[in-house]
Automatic annotation (TrEMBL):
UniProt name for this protein: Putative spermidine/putrescine transport system permease protein
One Pfam assignment: BPD_transp_1
Keywords: Cell membrane, Membrane, Transmembrane, Transmembrane helix, Transport
Biological process per Gene Ontology, one example term: transmembrane transport
Superkingdom assignment: Bacteria
Length: 425
């Protein structure tokens, strides 16, 4: 039987790119699968990303903006702030037009009940600036032929260059006043920057005190936490778990409660003094509260777990046979510990010290309750300017200075860690 030519002919091979098993199709499937994997990963981290953006990045950005953004005076005194742009000779007071603009803005602010805003802003830079503004507004005449002589006659401080320099710095929208004040500096009318008067130079000392207390607490936590972490890492699991519960126990109590407990323990007739008296260590109660000693004790107790946990996580990964090998090669236990074990714990020491130090920098409740007036850290003054005086610019500037100093120390820490890792490698 004859087979038709069309039936006997082999079918034409399909295009390799069109088949499901071709390399091009497999690459397309892999790309699609990789894209879906990335989308799923982005979907999983999106809630955390937006949470950090809203609660962390945005507030810090707004803090940095407020430290250099100043529109309080220009909002209530628009005419005089516009006239200040023409103040060319900063060695003398402005011209008659600027004084006339000041009189106009004083009257308008009094009618709109916004004079307190301008008075509050000038009070930051001028001694008794509030009385200057309100006193001038109360005695301001309806009309005058020479506003310059009239305003200087009402309040002689309007004839001082320093007063107009403060008005010029507050004219905004950008200012260096708050950042300079946070560094105990001030800007003169000619643009030069000098050290602030002695009675106003407090913030550098506060910043030094903040870093001193934080560093001291970090060192105390390291000295106390290192043996505890070593014991946790070397004990049998049954005993180590019990000790870990004791380490984590403070987290189950409120920070305010723990701080208040130290107030009770460290007071003149508290438990600590009574025990020392009973043991004969002291003859009369010693002061351990409302001073630097109480701050160190309370903050060390609160921050100690943050040092122990990173140390423990690193020590747990160090194999015991490293020390046995060192001793078998002739090293004493002390030499083996210093030359073998201690360098391997440096990542834990660095992580615990950095975590403890940064947490200590922002402490507010503990120094406020346990420390005295000379023991308050920079967070106390940030809270003071935020809630008591509503000086957001100064509070933001202090926060920005603290953030900058912390970033500098963090970069230094990274460099030191990199150098130590290179030497260990």
């Amino acid at each position: 039987m004859t087979v038709p030519a069309s039936a006997s002919a082999a079918p034409a091979p399909a295009d390799p790119a069109a088949t499901h098993d071709s390399p091009a199709a497999l690459k397309q499937k892999l790309r699609r699968a990789e894209r879906m994997r990335k989308l799923r990963a982005m979907g999983l981290i999106a809630p955390l990303f937006f949470f950090l953006l809203i609660t962390f990045v945005v507030p810090i950005a707004d803090m940095l903006r407020r430290s250099v953004h100043d529109t309080e005076l220009s909002t209530v005194w628009p005419t005089v702030t516009a006239a200040m742009k023409g103040w060319s000779d900063r060695s003398t007071v402005p011209d008659e037009a600027t004084f006339a603009a000041l009189a106009k803005d004083l009257r308008a602010a009094g009618e709109t009940k916004t004079l307190a805003v301008a008075a509050r802003r000038l009070n930051y830079a001028v001694d008794n600036g509030r009385s200057l503004v309100f006193g001038t507004a109360r005695r301001l005449p309806v009309n005058a032929t020479n506003w310059k002589e009239t305003l200087i006659g009402i309040e002689p401080r309007w004839g001082q260059v320093e007063t107009w320099n403060a008005v010029n710095q507050a004219s905004g929208p950008l200012t260096s006043f708050y950042l300079l004040a946070a560094l105990d500096r001030e800007k003169l009318a000619d643009g030069s920057i000098i050290k602030a008067p002695e009675q106003n130079s407090i913030y550098i000392d506060i910043l030094e005190r903040t870093f001193t207390v934080s560093l001291s607490v970090t060192l105390l936590c390291l000295v106390l936490g290192f043996p505890v972490a070593y014991l946790l890492a070397t004990l049998p699991p049954k005993h180590a778990n019990m000790m870990m519960i004791l380490v984590l126990l403070p987290f189950w109590t409120s920070l305010l409660v723990r701080t208040a407990a130290w107030v009770v323990l460290l007071q003149e007739h508290g438990i600590v003094n009574e025990i020392l008296l009973a043991l004969g260590v002291i003859e009369q109660p010693i002061r351990m509260i409302y001073n630097r000693v109480g701050v160190y004790i309370a903050m060390t107790h609160i921050l100690l777990p943050f040092m122990i946990l990173p140390l423990y996580s690193v020590m747990k990964g160090i194999k015991p046979h490293f020390m046995r090998a060192a001793t078998s090669l002739g090293a004493t236990p002390t030499e083996a510990f210093i030359r073998i074990y201690l360098p391997m714990t440096l990542p834990g020491i660095g992580a615990g010290a950095l975590l403890t130090f940064i947490l200590a920098l922002g402490y507010y409740i503990t120094p406020a309750l346990v420390g005295g007036a000379a023991d308050q850290m920079i967070s106390f003054f940030i809270a003071f300017y935020t809630s008591d005086t509503v000086n957001w610019g100064m509070a933001s500037a202090l926060g920005a200075v603290l953030l900058a100093a912390t970033l500098v120390l963090y970069s230094l820490y990274n460099r030191l860690v990199g150098i130590s890792n290179m030497r260990l490698g």
